[in-house]
Design goal:
Layout (H helix, E strand, L loop, with lengths): L8 H6 L15 H26 L2 E8 L6 E10 L6 E7 L12 E5 L5 H19 L1 H10 L22 E11 L3 E7 L1 E5 L2 E5 L12 E8 L13 E3 L6 E15 L4 E15 L11 E8 L2 E8 L3 H59 L24
Parallel strand pairs: 11-13, 11-14
Antiparallel strand pairs: 1-14, 2-5, 2-9, 3-6, 4-5, 6-13, 7-8, 9-10, 11-12
Helix pairs in contact: 2-5
Length: 393
């Protein structure tokens, strides 16, 4: 059976299961307030810094064996040669003895070698930009990889005014998907004719005076365009000092897999060495005049991964940082408070001692200056004593 009890609501409201520190135990001081303000400022700065560090990504580079041997190699070409298209032939021959007839044909377009003012400005800017990127690549490669710029220069602009003369150059451009083996892409005099064991270029009706392999490379790359990859041959321009010039580019193609936070790209980057010499059979310099790009793929590939700390690691680092600052500031605050307390105690103690000495000296001086009054024993009045006797009843 339940009994009704009188409940004091004041007691219930004052009831608290968690003990609180009395207000008298909390010492408020200017030093403690200053340390608290500085602590909160440092914590805020570190939180902002850790947040920016978490949002920023890091790049991890490593080498791995390239096992994708059946993939195709895409070659992107845009070259202008100072000969008409009827006098030139572009072809590719790889280790499998396949030539250009087995791949997508390139586009040939008659044009003029001399660029217009706007085209020359564009090409000079491309040459300067590519030269700067090659020289300063190791200093800015992370900026390039993290940027969203897949091409730092746009396509060659069209001419404002076309010359009245006949075209004297040929622009060869396009893309080819070739086998992922060693190959040779070349541009030489005469159209190519396919044979069972290779091909030949028919140039029987041309003389050495018709040869001019001065050329300009607007684009030469492998695979898809990607930020961080610099194409060494873009913006290259060679002027032939002799009609029978042989230009050779020895290219090492490196497969590159790029894994970013948003997408995955499989592309290629390359290094190149170039060599040029005139063909003179009488002096023992044999060969075929033309422009030859001899490429080979590497057995190793570069894997680029864009990484970022996990959210759990970020929160743990954030808590550790805040807790460490609190503990460190508390230790420094206690140390400074102790030093301040010791210094203030000594000062107040010396001050009180000085005050006590002054008061004692003042009392002694007052006692010494007070006149001594004599005692008159003759004129002392007798004391009257009132005694009342109560009778007993």
């Amino acid at each position: 059976m339940l009994r009704r009890r009188n409940v004091n609501f004041k007691t219930v409201t004052e009831f608290d299961a968690f003990p609180k520190i009395p207000e008298t135990y909390i010492n408020k001081s200017a030093v403690g307030g200053t340390f608290s303000f500085l602590t909160f400022c440092i914590i805020a700065c570190l939180i902002v810094s850790e947040s920016f560090y978490y949002l920023d990504t890091r790049l991890n580079f490593k080498f791995e064996p390239d096992t994708d041997i059946e993939a195709k190699l895409k070659i992107n070409i845009d070259i202008t040669v100072a000969m008409t298209c009827s006098q030139l032939g572009a072809d590719v021959l790889d280790a499998t003895n396949q030539n250009l007839l087995g791949f997508e044909p390139l586009t040939e377009e008659d044009t003029w070698w001399e660029l217009s003012s706007n085209q020359r400005t564009h090409f000079d800017a491309l040459k300067h930009m590519n030269s700067y990127l090659r020289e300063e690549y190791h200093a800015i490669h992370e900026v390039l990889w993290k940027s969203s710029k897949v091409a730092f220069m746009s396509e060659m602009p069209k001419r404002n005014i076309e010359p009245t003369t006949k075209p004297d150059a040929c622009r060869i451009y396009g893309s080819m998907n070739v086998n992922k083996v060693a190959g040779n892409f070349h541009i030489t005099a005469g159209k190519s004719l396919s044979l069972p064991r290779g091909h030949v270029h028919i140039s029987a009706f041309m003389t050495s005076n018709d040869y001019n392999f001065t050329h300009r490379i607007n684009k030469f790359s492998f695979g898809e365009e990607s930020p961080g990859i610099v194409q060494p041959l873009d913006g290259d321009e060679k002027y032939a000092s002799d009609n029978m010039m042989l230009y050779q580019y020895f290219i090492e193609v490196v497969p590159t897999d790029i894994y970013t936070l948003l997408k995955t790209t499989k592309t290629y980057q390359y290094s190149v060495k170039d060599y040029a010499r005139p063909i003179d059979h009488q002096k023992g310099s044999h060969g075929i005049p033309g422009i030859f790009f001899k490429y080979d793929t590497s057995a190793m590939k570069v894997v680029v991964r864009q990484e970022r700390d996990s959210i759990i690691k970020f929160l743990v680092k954030l808590c550790a940082t805040v807790g460490g600052i609190f503990v460190t500031s508390g230790i420094i605050n206690s140390f400074v408070q102790s030093i301040w307390y010791i210094m203030t105690c000594k000062v107040f103690k010396n001050h009180h001692n000085n005050e006590d000495k002054k008061s004692l000296l003042q009392e002694q001086s007052v006692a010494n200056t007070k006149p001594i009054v004599g005692l008159d024993l003759v004129n002392i009045q007798p004391a009257t004593i009132d005694v009342t006797i109560n009778s007993l009843k």
